[in-house]
Write a structure and sequence with these properties.
The protein is an alpha+beta fold and 237 residues long. It folds into two domains: 147 residues, Sandwich (Jelly Rolls), CATH 2.60.120.10; 80 residues, Arc Repressor Mutant, subunit A, CATH 1.10.10.10. It has nine helices and twelve strands. The strands form three sheets. A four-stranded antiparallel β-sheet has the order 1-8-3-6. A hairpin with a 5-residue loop joins β4 and β5. α6 packs across α7 and α6 crosses α9. The longest helix has 27 residues. The radius of gyration is 19 Å and the shape is globular.
Length: 237
C-alpha cells in the first residue's frame, strides 16, 4: 500500500466512531503494512463458512451481510459503511465467516492480515477496541432479531426508511429526501419481506401523504408519522 493511500485511508476513517479509543500510535500500527482492495457493485467479499484470514476495514462504500433462506432468498441483516469492521469476531474466535458479504456499490476495503492482527491485539488499547466493536455488533444483531420476531412489516419498513433518512436524508422544501437509489427488492431483503408487500405498504403511505417520489428518490413528507410507526418515538433522541 502506498504512503499516499495510507494517508487517505487514515484521513477517511481515523475519526470514525469505531476508532475513537485508539491513540495515534496504535492506529498507525493497525493501518501500516495493510493492503487496499476495491470491490465493484455486487462483488462478493467472502462466503459463509469460508476461512477468515484478515481483518477488513471499510474505507468507502457499503457492504451487506446476508444469509440465504431455505427458499433461496437473500436476507440482509446488516448494512455496513465507512469505518465498520469485518472479520474481527472470526479472527478473535478462530472460526470461519458466519455470513456472506457483498459490496453494495463500489467499495474500498483496507485489509489487515491475520499475522498483523494477532500482533496488535496484544496491545491493551486494541483489546478495548475489540470489546467495543463486539458490543456494537451484538446490539445491531439483537435489534435485527427483535424486528424479525416482534414487529410487523409496517414497523420494520418504517424503521428502515428512518435509518435511510438519517444516513442519506437531505432537507428540501417538500420534505426529507432520501438521496440514495434503493429498489423495493433491496428494501425487502433488508427487512425480510417480499417486494409486492413492500410495494403495497409504500403505496399506502403515498396515499396517506407520508411519502412521495421525486426523480426516482423517496421523499418523506411526514417524518413525524413515519417515526411513530417505526416505534422509535415521535422525536429523535
Amino acid at each position: 500500500m502506498t504512503s499516499n493511500l495510507i494517508s487517505k485511508i487514515s484521513s477517511d476513517i481515523r475519526h470514525s466512531a469505531w476508532f475513537d479509543d485508539l491513540d495515534d500510535d496504535t492506529f498507525s500500527r493497525l493501518v501500516s503494512g495493510s493492503a487496499s482492495r476495491l470491490y465493484r457493485d455486487g462483488q462478493t467479499l467472502f462466503f459463509s463458512g469460508q476461512a477468515c484470514d484478515a481483518l477488513s476495514i471499510i474505507v468507502s462504500g457499503c457492504v451487506h451481510l446476508y444469509f440465504i433462506s431455505e427458499d433461496g432468498h437473500e436476507v440482509i441483516f446488516a448494512e455496513l459503511g465507512a469505518g465498520d469492521v469485518l472479520g474481527d469476531v472470526e479472527l478473535t474466535l478462530g472460526c470461519t465467516h458466519f455470513a456472506n458479504a457483498v459490496a453494495a456499490g463500489e467499495t474500498r476495503v483496507m485489509v489487515v492480515r491475520r499475522s498483523a492482527f494477532s500482533e496488535i491485539t496484544r496491545m491493551p488499547q486494541m483489546s478495548a477496541f475489540l470489546m467495543k466493536t463486539f458490543a456494537r455488533k451484538l446490539r445491531k444483531t439483537m435489534a435485527f432479531a427483535e424486528g424479525m420476531a416482534l414487529h410487523t412489516l409496517q414497523t420494520r419498513l418504517a424503521r428502515l426508511l428512518v435509518d435511510l433518512a438519517r444516513l442519506h436524508g437531505r432537507s428540501t422544501a417538500e420534505g426529507l429526501l432520501i438521496d440514495r437509489a434503493i429498489s423495493q427488492e433491496r428494501m425487502g431483503q433488508l427487512i425480510n419481506a417480499s417486494r409486492p408487500r413492500v410495494n403495497a405498504q409504500l403505496q399506502a403511505w403515498k396515499g396517506d401523504g407520508v411519502l412521495g417520489m421525486r426523480r426516482g428518490r423517496l421523499i418523506i413528507l411526514d417524518y413525524r408519522s413515519l417515526k411513530i410507526m417505526s416505534r422509535e418515538g415521535a422525536t429523535d433522541n
